[in-house]
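Section 3.1 - Work completed
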Amino acid sequence: MGAGIAEVSARAGLDTVLCEASRPAAAKARERIAASLEHAVRRGKLDRPSAESALARVTVTAEIADLADRQLVVEAVTEDTDAKTAVFAALDKVVADPAAVLATNTSSLPVMRLGMATGRADRVVGLHFFNPVPVLPLVEVVTTLHTSADVTSLVTDFATGVLGKTVIHSGDRAGFVVNALLVPYLLSAIRMTESGFAAAADVDRGMERGCAHPMGPLRLADLIGLDTVSAIAESLYEEFKEPLYAPPPLLLRMVEAGLLGRKTGRGFHTYDREERPGSPG
């Protein structure tokens, strides 16, 4: 997701720094951005000079200190509270401008918890993009009890005016708006398959052909990543203790087995290399 956010920022004309956990990961992130831009050129969505200019605006690094001069930082690490809290604590020490905005792309975790890991909770906000970021137009802006009004205004203007996204606003509760509605639906589809009531292909075909959904729930779960779906479900269940939010055993086993969906080539469906994220095809 971080590479996608970096790509749309660079395409919007911004000087963009993408920080990964290691140099190999940083190099791979740049390759993913280059492949995505090339794909946009081949599809006629972007001309080649614009793609080359966008890629030139992206600097990749494995050193968080390289973010010191940034005015807006969007964290997009794994959906794990400890990992995200550690990143925010580090950003608080590194980012020089006290007025800089520290945003999180979390899809379900409490934004307040991340803000309290810093000494500037009023400058922390949720900025939740949807995957694939260059394609999907929506961004959720999530404010905490501490987020200042000017920060809310700044990130809303950034998402709409600079990136050309559509914004909806949410309070700081697990799942925000979209995932609080979407994930229980996905979990119901998983339970239906787990019980043997219907095959994955039939579940998806039923919702695509019967309800005019562009993608069935299990194929959508594969696209999101089954590890991400599981993490969101666990966050929802932790906050609300509603049984419909609990991740089904089948989902947990698939995550343990590394069957995470499109990004690994197999989830509820199997995928060719060309269908995996970041592939030139």
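Second construct:
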Amino acid sequence: MSHSTADAVIPVRVGHSPDPDDAFMFYALAREKLPTGRYRFTHELQDIETLNRRALNGELELTAVSVHGYAYVADKYVLCNCGASMGDRYGPMVVAGRPGSIDDLRGRRIAVPGTLTTAFLTLKLLLGDDFEPIVRPFDVILEDVAAGSVDAGLIIHEGQLTYGDLKLHCIVDLGQWWYELTGLPLPLGANAIRRDLGEAVIGEVTDLLLQSIRYGLENREAALEYALQFGRDLDRSRADRFVGMYVNEWTLDFGETGRRAVAELLRRGHEAGVIPQLVEPEFVGIRG
């Protein structure tokens, strides 16, 4: 390879959601704390359902995706082995204006943050078709439930910590339900990199993502300060707690258990008829 080809700048458009855990992960890259060599990162912040749908068209080189969403783009993207958001006995919740049971959700109108989200897939595994999903932006669902315009809401991101502020009640924590069902953490989100970049670029960009995550964990106060601007209703204490929930050892490496959890979720989604084809997940640098 000639020097001109090897040294040419390679643009990498990164998509992630505007929430504290993603911001924390990408802090070092967004604030140019790391040498990135020939790569030039630009960041596009959009909600996860929008990113899932952009991934269907292979628009971004590196993007956050729901693990459910990955099932529909596995031909275009491979999963990075770092950058996971894992719900370890916690995760998306269904909340309502009054206490109730899972059976009380059947036949109800439930606001959901998109049909490609892992939260939606998990709710389908729980209730099947026995509810009416109302697709809404993730950041208005709590208000919808409080206003009574829907019977319940499927909440993701920081809503998991703030629903009580609106005097709402958790009917089911899907991360806990999944753990009781499978003994595994619930793999909610991941980072995926486009296959057509080639093996060398995929490896180098994934390594830079891992460096960024490590930098944030090793420089927690500065990374948290940056992430706070994406916290909406979170104070510093809650933002710190939320980041700790979703940026941790799982984020550095899915590990064998995390990878098994991804495969199990996709398998169950297919068996339930939600995911049309059985997808065997592929991870950068992991063979077999």
